[in-house]
Specification:
Layout (H helix, E strand, L loop, with lengths): L5 H8 L4 E6 L5 E6 L2 E3 L2 E6 L4 H8 L2 E8 L2 E12 L2 H16 L1 H10 L7 E13 L2
Antiparallel strand pairs: 1-2, 1-5, 3-4, 4-7, 5-6, 6-7
Helix pairs in contact: 3-4
């Protein structure tokens, strides 16, 4: 299927971790646990340019994003689009930190780490959805 049902959207809107799959230069998979936000029909995540997932995505934007809870899971395949704007990257890492860590911790992380980093936001448009347990 290529669209999320209301139950799938509700599942993704709960605070869960995702696993991002990208392709290494030799074709092997690279998997990363990450924070995400569902925004419309896109999965939004954020990283730094020093990370392997960023380098992999610059070379090949095809991804799989897996979110699971026991036997209930969603896998979303799509193509990741980079947003290199500094303001957007900083705003998005803050939103993600608030979602996963809470306001107070997010502010501390922004002050001590994130504001000093170059951040890149990625948006994954939903190309295909695989689901189990819904």
């Amino acid at each position: 299927m290529s669209e999320l049902t209301p139950k799938m959207r509700a599942f993704l809107e709960e605070r869960r971790f995702a696993v991002l799959g990208t392709a290494n230069t030799d074709g092997s998979p690279h998997l990363t646990v990450m924070w995400y936000i569902l925004e419309g029909d896109e999965i939004v995540f954020n990283t730094t340019p020093s990370r392997l997932k960023h380098r992999n995505l610059r070379r090949d934007p095809r991804v799989s994003v897996m979110v699971s809870d026991g036997y209930r899971y969603l896998r979303i395949d799509g193509s990741a689009r980079a947003i290199d704007d500094r303001g957007t990257g900083q705003a998005d890492i803050r939103r993600l930190a608030v979602r996963y860590e809470g306001e107070e911790s997010a502010e501390r992380q922004m002050r001590n780490a994130f504001s000093k980093q170059e951040r890149v936001t990625y948006r994954v448009a939903i190309g295909h959805v695989y689901a189990g347990g819904f």
